[in-house]
Amino acid sequence: MKKIVEKIDKLLKKQYYVIDVLPKQVPNNSKGQFFEVEEYLLNNHRQLCLHYRFASVILKLMCYYPVILFIVNHNKIVKDPSPKMIGDSIYHMMENHGETLNILFSKNVLFVLEESCLTITVYNPSKDMRAIIKKIAKGEGLFWWKPEQS
Questions:
Q1: What is the H or E stretch that residue 70 is in?
Q2: 3-state secondary structure of 145
Q3: Which tens digit of pLDDT belongs to each residue from 30-52?
Q4: Helix (H, G, I), strand (E, B) or coil at 28
Q5: What tens digit of pLDDT does each residue of 48-69 get?
Q6: DSSP annotation of 82
Q7: Distance in angstroms (rounded) separating the CA atoms of residues 10 and 8
Q8: Full-prediction pTM beyond 0.70?
């Protein structure tokens, strides 16, 4: 477990992208209602639709790359989890406030899902993997973009 956690800590410092319900980052000075919309989407039946989209992205990528699932709040690591375990884990994460899932794909790519976000953060994807993720995200009605990074 220690090796996996160390690998994740290193990947969290790498370049990242997001899979999002929005096509770009909402500016801090936006006059829109981002927080109200986010609250609404995270706390009603639409959350279930988002769960299916996120699970579909991960499951489709599992067809190409091996996976290690790390359920942070339970200190549980599962190598080559079943598709059902991935779907159930994402569903439970979104239902139980405060949970985080780290999904480590081969080639040192980390996906981070948190129940309080409308995004999947993807650390260190290769050019080839970015191309695949972009197509899969689009097929699920999601957007793939690179936020400004410091």
A1: strand 67-71
A2: strand
A3: 999 998 988 888 777 666 678 88
A4: coil
A5: 678 889 999 999 999 999 999 9
A6: -
A7: 5
A8: yes
Element (H, E) at 60: helix 46-62
The beta-strand segments (E) located in 85-134 are: 100-105, 109-114, 119-123
User: What is the residue type of 97?
Assistant: H
Rounded Cα gap, residues 144 and 68, in angstroms: 22
Q: Any idea which residue has 């990242």 for tokens?
A: 16
Residue whose structure tokens are 């959350």: 47
3 state SS of 85: helix
Nearest alpha-carbon partner for 142 in 18, 16, 51, 20: 20
* DSSP conformational letter for 27: P
Q: Which two tokens stand for residue 82?
A: 């079943």
